[in-house]
Amino acid sequence: MTTFSPPSSPTAERQLSKAQARRKVLAEIDNAPFTQFHVRTVLTAGAGFFTDAYDIFAINLCAYMIGLVYGADGQLTRSQELGLKIATPVGNLVGQLVFGWLADKWGRKKIYGIELLIRGDYPLSAVITSEFAATRFRGRMMIGVFAMQGFGNITASVVALIVTAAFKDSVLDKPDYRSVDYVWRIVIGIGMVPGLFAIWSRMTIPESPRFTMDVERNLDQASSDADFVKFGKFDVIEDRVPRRVEVPKASRRDFIAHFSKWPNLAPLIGCAWSWFALDFAFYGLGLNPSLIFHAIGFGNSKAENLNQRAFDNMYNTAVGSIILSIAGLIPGYWFTFAFIDSWGRKPIQFMGFTVLTAIFIVMGFGYTKITTSNQASFAFLYALANFFQNFGPNSTTFVLPGELFPTRYRSTAHGISAASGKLGAVLAQVLLLYAKDIGGPNKSVDHILEILALFMMTGIFSTALIPETKGRSLESLSGEVEDQDAIGMFDQGPPQSLREQFTSLFKRRPRAPPSSDGWEGLGSTGPNHF
């Protein structure tokens, strides 16, 4: 059994070698029981995802309303609609690159909250969650954060439905759609409320101990920051010269040297392309539900009165979005939550891309026959696609880049991967808005679905470039460990049943008996699991 003995006093602690002390701090985090702090971290990070998803999908719901008020002949031009739908993904793309890099340069805490201003939330939330999570439930914590995207989506639809219903009489009475102008502004404006909570709560999160130790090289402050996981409080140490950890220092030259090696570059390519391919389909269809509603004959009002038609379309779009969220999107997140720490990330991503390839092939090549003879089947296939996007690559593409890379480049690499996804989202909007009407209104939707199937197939191959991360410490995954045998305690085999997964959240890792000098040894968790 591999053990080492943490000290019982500050004097004894300073007698530890720097390498031993670093391993002790990491072990405290990686072996911690599930505490109130972990719940707080999930809620704090999740609030940003809730806000981000609310805004993205609220804009999609409100695009029709804005067209009624400001568009020529009551609708936006194709270019105006494109600009409205890609504005947020473009902001996401820039924010994820910039703030992903800044979080590695200045620290997670210094910019956490500021990044919400231009939608750079993904790398910060993923990295902070992964760096504070214990190894055995890290996947579930990260999915708990990401699942807030689904609740943001459905909340936007529910708010749009309620506000639309509240303004029904006014919409029907005023021929110039002035009331519709209030509806979309209220729906968008409500998104500020969770955003303000997210900014406030992020100011109370301490710096990641891993950043403090491996980038700032302040071992003593990192040890204090790690106490926040156990006790909910930490001290700022200013009265002594800190011990410096001997680890590689981030620099442009070191970044190039690190990622010029294929074992380090391959996972970055795999994460980036997988996210690009996934978001091409996820946002391509997610921001254009009218394509699906048209295919199944839902949502398009036949009313002769223009005001009644406008109200019906607004109302039906909100109802349809709620149904799709309940039927596929939200359950998919929580299936991933249930299985990610037992099955692993790669099997879920492989399964998702494979099933999505098959679904889009059937929807694309069978589009005409299915939509004319059995529209319910087409709706079922679309809901199934939503389910396997979230019980699949939409969830795992968020988790994997937050685990695979060294601390000094973890946020940057996650930002690159996330920005690749948003680039896919932007290109998908261009394709759908300009290609779907080739040959007539919505006459090329079948070919678009076939293209989505091709992108899902490429995701299968890009996933092969990514190593499995379940049950392994962040340091062993990124090659930052000094002695794998000496810190085998960090790599833990995940519990295999759902009951074991739940009960393991509240169990402490086993400790060796106190030694004769009064130090309490941390026991090894057994052999490594790869």
Commentary on this structure:
- The two termini are 19 Å apart.
- Helix content is 67%, strand content 1%.
- The chain has 25 helices and two strands.
- It is mainly alpha-helical and 530 residues long.
What structural keywords apply?
530 residues; mainly alpha; two-stranded antiparallel ribbon; 2 strands
Short description, anyone?
With 530 residues, this protein is mostly helical. It has 25 helices and two strands. It has helices spanning 10-15, 18-30, 36-70, 78-105, 108-111, 121-132, 138-146, 148-166, 168-173, 178-190, 192-202, 209-214, 219-231, 252-259, 262-286, 289-295, 306-339, 345-365, 367-373, 375-390, 393-399, 410-435, 445-463, 474-478, 498-504; strands at residues 511-514, 520-522.
